[in-house]
Specification:
With about 180 residues, this protein is α/β, with parallel strands linked by helices. It has one domain (about 15-170). It is about 20% helix and about 30% strand. It contains 4 helices and 12 strands, in the order ββαββββαβββββααβ. The chain has helices at about 35-40, 85-95, 140-150, 150-155, and strands at about 1-5, 15-20, 45-55, 55-60, 65-70, 80-85, 100, 110-115, 120-125, 130, 135-140, 160-165. The strands form 2 sheets. Strands 2-3-6-7-8-9-11-12 form an 8-stranded mixed barrel. Strand 2, helix 1 and strand 3 (about 45-55) form a beta-alpha-beta unit. The protein starts with a strand and ends in a 14-residue tail after the last strand.
């Protein structure tokens, strides 16, 4: 279930809110700028669903776009953009700033922040997939149950680079335990 790739000492671990959710899903507020900013202000990074349509960026959730965002919103360094269309990925990568962006296309989920080396390149990984120490593991409610009942899964999860969950507060500090 786990592959080892990194050969360096201490690395930053990421705790990533799913669309602004930190203590469970809030259907009404998730995917809005206000909710995302609240997660950032709580100290978490945040995965944001983003679209690019008719020359503007829109954010939202699995139900679709909810609101247009100002250009300066995409400059928050703690955001991880889950591009909901290929146009969003293209536009984000075309920006002359370091951004974290990915799109699901044939199940390849690479996240890359513009950098001069591979130290800032990660693999967005579903919790049921094989993951590496470059993985950011997505843990929906089903993954949280696996985390609670499976000690082997919990132990292997300690080796990843980050966790994204709508219940991210449950995992706060977990990746630093028993290093």
């Amino acid at each position: 279930m786990y592959l080892r790739f990194l050969k360096r000492g201490d690395i930053k671990r990421f705790y990533i809110s799913d669309n602004g959710n930190v203590d469970g899903v809030d259907i009404e507020q998730q995917g809005t700028q206000r909710f995302v900013k609240a997660a950032l202000n709580s100290g978490f990074d945040c995965k944001v669903d983003i679209w690019f349509r008719n020359g503007v960026f829109l954010i939202g959730d699995d139900g679709g776009p909810k609101e247009e965002v100002e250009f300066n919103f995409i400059h928050y360094p703690q955001l991880w953009f889950h591009c909901q269309n290929i146009e969003a990925l293209y536009e984000l990568l075309d920006q002359d700033i370091g951004l974290r962006a990915f799109v699901h296309q044939n199940r390849v989920n690479l996240v890359n922040k513009k950098a001069k080396n591979n130290d800032q390149c990660w693999i967005w990984t579903p919790f049921k997939a094989r993951f590496t120490d470059r993985s950011i593991v997505y843990l929906p409610n089903e993954g949280i149950e696996e985390f609670k009942v499976n000690p082997e899964f919990r132990e292997s999860l300690k080796k990843v680079q980050g966790i994204c969950s709508p219940n991210i507060r449950l995992f706060e500090g977990f990746l630093e335990e028993d290093k």
